[in-house]
Design brief:
Helices cover about 20% and strands about 20% of the residues. It is an alpha+beta fold and about 800 residues long. A ten-stranded mixed beta sheet has the order 7-6-5-4-8-1-9-10-2-11, with helices on both faces. Strand 16 and strand 17 form a beta hairpin.
């Protein structure tokens, strides 16, 4: 008994010693310790033969300098310069407005015109081409400027802060990993946890269904919560609050970095009906009047100079008064869904801010809110009822669009879980008031976006507007400046590129503080611009056109905020000066070579599934994001080997895509079914014979014909039981997922909607063999597939 008591006393003493050492604060900690859990590597005690002649050592806990603020980045998606209340909108965003009026609004903030590059620049403080992210992560061109992920030679803010003792959480959209790396096979090098975040909850791609999201938690694909009234925006903030609360409960003095990237307000625009109904009367005035109202409000708020002119109507956008009554009714509903989606996201931001306030953390939380680019023009001139429509045209294949009559048939479903909409580009034009053009372009409408910085402890000039030219690469250097940290020159043995942005912390206290830079280049899909001390040279590039023929426009932004007075013809010397400067900057930051293929490079998504001609898939395996699975360009067959226990054994054998497009092979009511969801138009082939109980081989065979048409056949144990003509567009597999034995995302077929994942009973689906017939070689466009799997 005495020995036992003595043993426990020694253990308690050691534990108390450890607790005392752990509790010792380290002030002024500024150097990064990359191995804070390295154990023996940093042992500073003495090891003798026994504990009597040895000296223990417990490493001090890693802590940032005293008083370091919490950091929160909130990234909105496809939200235009004028879409927030404090930037002139009639959309109800009281919680974002509260941040703007309690902090600073910047009216001269610039992004990369599209999502992935902006996020890469934001997280690294470096130009996106420098770190290998030229455009969206799904398009790779084979050059160092376009790898679809952040270079290992560029640390993220999360890596720096975690190495300095911060807790780090990423929640929401990532889109900084190539499609072929998004499966459970990895590699995981470019997933959030491997780029500095302790926890991750969100979606890896560029967009997802808000009611049926393709979720990932840490390094694992998971099913979304099947609870009543589920919506992704709410779920993301729930997890943000949980991560913060969990950490603060056990480490209340440890600051955190939260990177919260909403799907809102990227298409599909999905939100509960009451949010949509609210905005129908608001936008019945149309997009022309909306623009006029917004620019007047912006001037009144001081968000733009009083002499700002409204940019001319963008090419192809019709005057609102010229539209028919049916067009107006439909187009208003589209915009109402967008506005409701944004207001709903604002409510979730309010919940997060309220939590920080109630927990006493808001005062020393530096919160940065941005949009990643301007408003999205990809809905075309008439909008979408199905988000895949726009990408069929962008990919260079047969363009399919949502017509007004079709939209009117589905008008009551806009915003619901049965519809994946995007608004007409007239509303995107209004969202970018007072600028011209849209997302993907480097005119103001693509790159001049909202920036709000809220930090009660560090900003006294609350509600003020700052006019300094600020680039997205300047945000992370500002955080490093405030926290007293530096980006490492070497990180985990890899030499790091220098940070290219500069701090804007001086503007927090001084409205007249100089801007962080004199020059900034822009490039997106061949569109180019250069800004130098208030002058901007910009050109819109057409796909396939020689770059030397692009027409350059010149603006003096000090007198012409909205880029409406082109001075190129009258100031040729300035044009030539800035053109030379653009090429110089392009070479300096790795922009070259210019790639003129534009979004037609999306054709590269259409590689054979997982790069192989034969796949054997098993139930229970994780779903494969469709952009990683690829598509069948020629003929293919699906053979499911089943052992049905009884006549009530039914469910999905294999599903590809989601409710917007795809196909699904399943058994229901004792019949074998193939439902080809051709952009929400269903071509259903049902077996003439019943599927027997016991073991059997169930096969679907597609034999291609002209274009994407062909013949579909069903077989039960090699006996043909059905045949029909089908049209299967390869672009469908850029969305949703490939799953075996279930359909866990939105239902590809409405035939089993309401039945959950409609999973085939456990143990009764043995495997599914996919056989791909050889297809004609596609043109060598940009690739989203691993070169090793494309040989």
């Amino acid at each position: 008994m005495t020995r036992a008591i003595a043993y426990y006393i020694r253990q308690l003493s050691a534990a108390l010693t450890l607790l005392i050492l752990v509790a010792i604060p380290i002030s002024g900690q500024q150097n990064l310790r990359l191995n804070n859990n390295s154990g023996d590597d940093d042992f500073q005690g003495v090891i003798g033969k026994t504990d009597k002649d040895s000296k223990p050592y417990f490493a001090h806990p890693l802590q940032p300098k005293a008083g370091s603020p919490n950091i929160v980045y909130i990234v909105l998606d496809d939200v235009g310069f004028s879409d927030l209340g404090v930037y002139g909108s009639e959309i109800h965003t009281p919680n974002i407005d509260r941040l703007g009026l309690g902090g600073l609004r910047f009216n001269n903030f610039h992004t990369r015109a599209i999502c992935s590059p902006t996020r890469a620049a934001l997280l690294t403080g470096r130009n996106s081409h420098s770190v290998g992210v030229r455009t969206v992560a799904d398009i790779l061109n084979g050059y160092p400027n376009d790898r679809g992920r952040i270079s290992p030679h560029a640390t993220t803010l999360a890596e720096i802060l975690r190495s300095a003792g911060y807790g780090t959480f990423a929640v929401g959209k990532w889109h900084l990993v190539p499609g072929y790396e998004t499966t459970e096979a990895g590699p995981f090098d470019n997933w959030p946890l491997q780029r500095g975040f302790d926890h991750y909850y969100g979606f890896l791609g560029g967009l997802t269904d808000q009611y049926h999201p393709d979720l990932v938690q840490d390094n694992t694909h998971i099913d979304y919560p099947r609870r009543p009234n589920y919506h992704l925006s709410e779920d993301l903030v729930d997890h943000s609050i949980t991560y913060i609360r969990n950490e603060q409960t056990t480490a209340p003095n440890r600051p955190f970095f939260l990177y919260l990237a909403f799907g809102a307000a990227h298409a599909p625009h999905q939100v509960p009906k009451p949010y949509i109904d609210k905005y129908v009367p608001v936008f019945e005035k149309g997009w022309d009047k909306t623009r006029q109202d917004r620019i007047a409000r912006q001037k009144q708020l001081g968000v733009i100079p009083a002499n700002t002119q409204l940019a001319p109507r963008n090419e192809g956008v019709k005057p609102w008064d010229s539209l028919s009554a049916d067009e107006k009714r439909l187009f208003v509903r589209y915009q109402a869904a967008y506005a409701g989606f944004l207001e709903h996201a604002d409510e979730q931001i309010g919940r997060l801010v309220d939590f920080l306030q109630d927990s006493g953390q808001l005062d020393n939380t530096l919160l940065v809110l941005i949009s990643d680019n301007g408003a999205n023009y990809e809905g075309g001139f008439e909008g979408w009822t199905n988000y895949v429509y726009g990408y069929t045209a962008l990919s260079g294949f047969i363009p399919v669009k949502s017509t007004v009559p079709q939209g009117l048939e589905e008008i009551d479903e806009i915003g619901t879980d049965r519809n994946t909409t995007n608004y007409p580009r007239g509303w995107a034009m209004a969202g970018n008031t007072p600028f011209k053009l849209y997302k993907e372009f480097v005119h103001g409408g693509g790159v001049n976006d909202p920036l709000i910085i809220h930090w009660p402890k560090g900003i006294q000039d609350r509600g003020a507007i700052r006019q300094q030219f600020v680039d997205v690469i300047d945000i992370t250097p500002t955080i490093l400046d405030i926290t007293g940290l530096r980006a490492p020159e070497v990180y985990h043995g890899i030499a790091q590129k220098p940070v290219e942005g500069a701090s804007i912390a001086a503007t927090f206290k001084d409205s007249s503080a100089p801007g962080p830079r004199h020059v900034q280049y822009f490039e997106q899909l061949g569109n180019r611009a250069i800004w130098k001390d208030g002058w901007k040279l910009v050109t819109e590039h057409k796909d396939g056109v020689d770059f030397d023929t692009d027409r350059w426009e010149l603006y003096n932004l000090r007198d012409d905020f909205s880029e409406t007075n082109d001075l190129a013809a009258t100031n040729l010397a300035k044009v030539e000066e800035l053109k030379k400067l653009w090429w110089s900057e392009a070479e300096k930051y790795g922009v070259l070579p210019l790639d003129g293929r534009g979004v037609k490079a999306l054709r590269s998504l259409l590689a054979p599934p997982l790069g192989r001609s034969t796949l054997t898939l098993y139930p229970g395996q994780a779903r494969i994001p469709a952009r990683a699975a690829g598509a069948a360009l020629g003929g293919f067959s699906l053979t499911a080997h089943v052992n049905r226990a009884g006549a009530d054994s039914e469910g999905v054998l294999l599903s590809v895509g989601d409710s917007s497009a795809g196909y699904v092979f399943y058994v229901k009511d004792n019949h074998l079914v193939f439902d080809n969801n051709n952009l929400s138009s269903h071509q259903v082939l049902k077996s003439s014979a019943e599927v027997p109980t016991g073991e059997s081989a169930l096969r679907f065979q597609f034999t291609p014909g002209l274009l994407f048409g062909g013949t579909g056949e069903l077989f039960i144990n090699d006996q043909k039981v059905g045949e029909t003509a089908l049209t299967i567009l390869p672009i469908i597999t850029g969305f949703g997922a490939l799953e075996v034995g279930r359909n866990s995302l939105s239902p590809v077929s409405q035939d089993y909607a309401g039945k959950g994942a409609f999973a085939f009973p456990d143990g009764q689906l043995l495997k599914v063999v996919v056989q791909i017939s050889p297809a004609e070689k596609s043109e060598p466009a940009a690739s989203n597939q691993n070169p090793e799997t494309r040989k």
